[in-house]
Amino acid sequence: xxxxxxxxxxxxxxxxxxxxxxxxxxxxxxxxxxxxxxxxxxxxxxxxxxxxxxxxxxxxxxxxxxxxxxxxxxxxxxxxxxxxxxxxxxxxxxxxxxxxxxxxxxxxxxxxxxxxxxxxxxxxxxxxxxxxxxxxxxxxxxxxxxxxxxxxxxxxxxxxxxxxxxxxxxxxxxxxxxxxxxxxxxxxxxxxxxxxxxxxxxxxxxxxxxxxxxxxxxxxxxxxxxxxxxxxxxxxxxxxxxxxxxxxxxxxxxxxxxxxxxxxxxxxxxxxxxxxxxxxxxxxxxxxxxxxxxxxxxxxxxxxxxxxxxxxxxxxxxxxxxxxxxxxxxxxxxxxxxxxxxxxxxxxxxxxxxxxxxxxxxxxxxxxxxxxxxxxxxxxxxxxxxxxxxxxxxxxxxxxxxxxxxxxxxxxxxxxxxxxxxxxxxxxxxxxxxxxxxxxxxxxxxxxxxxxxxxxxxxxxxxxxxxxxxxxxxxxxxxxxxxxxxxxxxxxxxxxxxxxxxxxxx
Length: 506
Prior knowledge:
This is Circularly permuted type 2 ATP-grasp protein. It comes from Rhodococcus antarcticus. Residues 444-469, 482-506 are annotated as: Disordered. Residues 60-436 form the Circularly permuted ATP-grasp type domain. This protein has 2 domains: 10-329 and 405-500, no CATH class; 333-393, Dna Ligase, domain 1, CATH 3.30.1490. The chain is α+β, with helices and mostly antiparallel strands. Strand 9 (237-240) and strand 10 (243-248) form a beta hairpin. It is built from 16 helices and 25 strands. The longest helix has 25 residues, at 65-89. It starts with 12 loop residues before the first helix and ends in a 6-residue tail after the last helix.
């Protein structure tokens, strides 16, 4: 919110003027109202096995129109390059034959699935939805922290944060030209319908969820309702003659597009985990036959592998012939001997991450680690250098956050969501700002006790983009929060697999 000299940055001037006169009691009242709204609507996430309301801080993050335009172009460029990479790596593999990327980088990736080789989507789109995690460094530059291409979660919080903020701060929305976020479901549905085979006039789309025990079930249910499509579990679908059908009260109905929120490993017991009770046996064969589209495509995980991530700038140059508009965070690749040696020598200075980790688990912050922890992580790196990367400590930018009776700085990141319909890539204005609530913490994941902020992208002068003009208008546009729909009793195996698989929780 502030420059180094203490002056207010231009995008925040209106917000600062509105909040500065508030006393602690007023802020507490509004903060309590935010919490009650989330509890009433059942907007929760799973932390240590317990469902809790998602913490929403009352001070929004503000991004200027000019800055957002730069971010949007960089995100679109990145998604285009990774789309080309996935088509290539599951097709002709020219980038490997040309020696631009080492072949063992791909073959050693846990999420490179040969089962997906040769499956070509009807409109060429494999990444229908992506979440690109960004951080702003000490120089004020946005950098890409990681890519999420399988089932990035959190967009439901973006929409619900906005709707709840508009109820509690209607005066702020009346005085700010904030771009709208409520039409995300329309863009997603358009992309899913466009992905169906060209000979299907009116595609049937379903959202496939692992079930009510999954930490992101609220989001699955919300998106299905807002798109007006069926929310199904694996037991609601079956395959016959390489075609996917849905069981309904009126009989069988063919399914053309499955927006799945289930990990690859649980999706099809014929090809992956044979004991999975969450997926649909034969769905991979149906996709290969061209009778169903799986969104996002099986095998996308090779594109968001944390080691493959370090080569995305190379992909942008190779496939697009362009320079990256968004830089990566500087990263050491432990599978390269020279860089591994440096990581081992400097472990106490670096942030060390497991390549296959998610949710903030397994990360070692060198400056905070003790001798025993550093010795243990060095041993793990030596035993499996492919499984680890390391990055310098990035002092993430901060935004004022209500802690107790005060507004104090807390570190944040940003996850914008991009939707690809084959004709263009649309980026949701703003995305999910996650905030590390403990003092000095750099881990923003909700699974590690983080919270979120509403993210405001200001509309430029003369812009025709849809805006949130007032809280009253906004509330009337977005459906109310959904309640969990509980089906039949779950078996112990079903509930265990629903909790284990993290397709909706990245």
